[in-house]
Specification:
472 residues, mainly beta, Jelly Rolls, 2 domains
């Protein structure tokens, strides 16, 4: 069993080949256990967990085909159950050298199992692109489920419209079936003429709303969502935030145990473990619990089982370094002319920090200093709450001239000048939650280091602060 909330079957190393780490998790819940299928080395693997803390050893369940086969590479799909059998619908990617008018690049294929562990490819099922209603090319990522309202099985397909502006024809198509064998076109349910395509579609109902989750790569890797009163739409874009996490959280799909619904995706890694390098496909598992707000929009929080995996409290000895600090059960900091910070203590290899912060009106920035190397802050990461802009930012010491990558940011609703912060740290990954908003990031160039709090151009208080180490 692997005991790490950021699961990966293989740790990253410098020079690691493309698609070697895991990605595109396809979760399925069965008999009190989560079956997490994922892509690795162009094949499908499986790990199982009951709590997203302990994971079984990965096993290959669907092997890629040969150079002449349609499933030269196996791509994303989903699992459904009919009768006593499980059906795994997946994408078969053909070798580019063998593509022709008869041999499509992408075809929807299927495997069958009786126990979710042993799968056999079903050569009788071969769903080619529907060129009557869609363009050839993008035709993948089938999301199959039973729809009680329609009394039919439903398949969502990632596709593109036949006509329209370049790179704006991405759409989500619905097909229906009575038997999981024969599928009929139902409608194009979402075609906003914004994205290249909608990867890894996933639809579900929560309360009285339907939700459509998809991932896109127009500018960055992003997982987005829309909501509606019906699976048929029309779909509404959330007013302020249609994402769940930052621009390195991708291909997320949801799974429910009947009580909770979890969003399961992957946090990408950077080439050669270099902060300034580009992200590459694959990474580590990252799961959030979805929560429905009164207005129908969604927010996220850490899984309760994950929070409970941290119970060993770490002693903190706060010490003001710059600015004016009053140290007690509540830490009060003030610096009206720039940056001030207070060192708290040393981090652990796997730990969680939690606090509530309150600031005076007019304060510019507050937040947490992470992986600090020394009192002079020669190395650091920083979770910065920009009170004046209603956003959170993850920054680091080496984002300097020559590293003009995008800002790792998320919009946050700061009510009453306060925020609740939870940060999970393990190796180079940092996952922060602030007021129902998540932001995951990585920093390769720091050690474990220390932790502190800061204020910039203002005054604030940190309450209920504690650092907790993960259980062995």
């Amino acid at each position: 069993m692997k005991h790490d909330i950021f699961y990966t079957p293989q740790e990253q190393y410098v020079g690691m080949p493309h698609a070697t780490m895991c990605g595109d998790f396809m979760p399925y819940y069965w008999q009190k256990e989560f079956y997490l299928f994922f892509l690795k080395d162009e094949c499908v693997y499986l790990t199982r967990t009951k709590d997203f803390v302990d994971f079984s050893e990965a096993r290959m369940v669907i092997k890629r085909g040969g150079d002449e086969d349609q499933e030269w590479h196996v791509g994303t799909g989903s699992i459904c159950r009919m009768g006593e059998k499980f059906y795994f619908y997946f994408t078969g990617f053909r070798n580019p050298e063998t593509i022709s008018s008869e041999n499509h690049e992408q075809v929807i294929m299927r495997a069958v199992s009786e126990d979710l562990l042993n799968w056999e490819k079903d050569s009788s099922f071969f769903m080619v692109p529907d060129q009557e209603h869609c363009a050839d090319g993008h035709w993948r990522d089938p999301d199959v489920f039973w729809n009680e309202e329609m009394n039919k099985y439903v398949m969502l397909v990632t596709a593109t419209e036949k006509e329209g502006a370049d790179d704006r024809r991405g759409c989500t198509v619905i097909y229906t079936s009575d038997d999981c064998d024969h599928w009929k076109f139902y409608k194009i349910t979402y075609a906003p003429r914004i994205f290249i395509t909608h990867e890894c579609n996933n639809a579900f109902k929560m309360g009285d709303k339907w939700y459509l989750i998809f991932s896109c790569f127009n500018n960055w890797w992003e997982t987005r969502y829309r909501y509606a009163d019906s699976l048929e739409g029309p779909w509404t874009e959330p007013a302020n935030d249609d994402m769940f996490d930052g621009r390195q959280f991708y291909a997320a799909k949801t799974v429910s145990d009947g009580t909770h619904r979890y969003l399961v995706g992957w946090q990408s890694v950077k080439r050669d473990c270099d902060d300034a390098a580009k992200c590459i496909w694959g990474g580590t598992l990252l799961a959030h619990e979805l929560m429905q707000k009164e207005n129908g929009e969604l927010e996220v929080k850490p899984l309760e089982t994950v929070v409970n995996a941290y119970s060993e409290k770490v002693e903190l000895i706060p010490h003001g370094e710059q600015g004016e600090w009053k140290i007690d059960s509540i830490i009060t900091g003030e610096e009206q002319q720039g940056f001030g910070w207070c060192e708290l203590g040393e981090l652990k290899p796997e730990c969680m920090f939690e606090t509530d912060v309150i600031w005076e009106k007019g304060t510019r920035y507050v937040g947490i200093m992470l992986h600090t190397e020394d009192r002079n802050l020669s190395k650091w990461c920083q979770l910065r709450l920009e009170c004046c802009r209603n956003r959170m930012v993850m920054d680091r010491f080496n984002r300097r001239d020559g590293d003009q990558s995008y800002i790792e940011e998320r919009p946050v609703d700061f009510k009453d000048n306060k925020a609740h912060i939870q940060i999970f740290m393990s190796g180079n990954i940092i996952v922060s939650y602030v007021n129902g908003t998540a932001l995951a990031s990585r920093c390769y160039s720091t050690g474990i280091g220390g932790i502190g709090v800061f204020v910039e151009n203002g005054k604030c208080q940190y309450e209920n602060y504690h650092l907790i180490e993960k259980n062995n």
